[in-house]
Amino acid sequence: MQHERLLKVLVIGDLGVGKTSIIKRYVHQVFSQHYRATIGVDFALKVLNWDHKTVVRLQLWDIAGQERYGNMTRVYYREAVGALVVFDMTRLSTFQAILKWKGDLDSKVALTNGRPVPAVLLANKCDQRRHGLCPKLPKLENFSREYGFVGWYETSAKDNTNIDAAITCLVKSIMSVEEERSLSEAASAAGKSEPEGSVLVLPRFDYDVKEKGLGGCSGCPSLKPRDRDSD
């Protein structure tokens, strides 16, 4: 029997970077150049048959990029377990705002152990590369690692480039965090019931890490562990 996991994921970034387009492409497989600016917050839900044991109900929160809604983000961010942080490759100012959005995220929501929630950086509108800022941008691999992103991707909602890959990367990272937490809680509970001097042995796993072209997901191990004893 499958069990359900509800994951609240934020989609944040400046006005006009394509947040709504990314969500519409991922959830409904549609694209339009005429979406209205999000006012406050909007929602979308996608159900994923994650594995034979788990159904993921992925709740995507489309957060308005206008400054006047900034004082509401603490309410919107509550109980989020991950985020997509988006900038527009054709507008340098939206890249310069990335650290503001990441800082806002980290200051207002965290995991139960106090660590930042997993976040993936999206360099959106890569279909407009010829108008882009590639020469002016730092190497995103180094940038994302330095500022605590679990991965980064060049994306295009118009061409459907790397949208699925980026969100899968984020969900894998979130599920990996959940797995670690469950193992830690199980170890703690077992430790309390073990007699003094006994040793609790947990299974050891190898994880395969895959990277995509036009991006990478260095922090996203597969959730299909392989027992070393079976190698």
Write the layout of secondary structure elements.
Elements: E1 3-12, H1 19-28, E2 41-49, E3 54-63, H2 73-77, E4 82-88, H3 92-96, H4 98-108, E5 119-124, H5 140-146, E6 151-155, H6 163-193, E7 205-206, E8 215-216, E9 226-227
Parallel strand pairs: 1-3, 1-4, 4-5, 5-6
Antiparallel strand pairs: 2-3, 6-8, 7-9
GO molecular function, one term: GTP binding
Pfam family, one: Ras
Protein name: Ras-related protein Rab
CATH superfamily: P-loop containing nucleotide triphosphate hydrolases
Number of strands: 9
Q: Based on Cα principal axes, name the global outline.
A: globular
Rg estimate, integer Å: 19 Å
Low-confidence stretches: 200-212, 219-231
Sheet with most strands: 7 strands, mixed
Termini distance?
A: 28 Å
Give the class-level CATH name. Alpha Beta
Average pLDDT, rounded to a whole number, is 82
Quickly count the helices. Answer: 6
Strand content: 15-25%
**CATH-assigned fold name:** Rossmann fold
Percent of residues in helices comes to: 25-40%
Class derived from helix and strand content = alpha/beta
Strand order of the largest sheet: 2-3-1-4-5-6-8
Number of domains: 1
Element pattern in H and E: EHEEHEHHEHEHEEE
What is the correct CATH architecture? 3-Layer(aba) Sandwich
GO molecular function: GTP binding; GTPase activity
Keywords: GTP-binding, Lipoprotein, Membrane, Nucleotide-binding, Prenylation
Pfam family, one: Ras
GO biological process, one term: phagosome-lysosome fusion
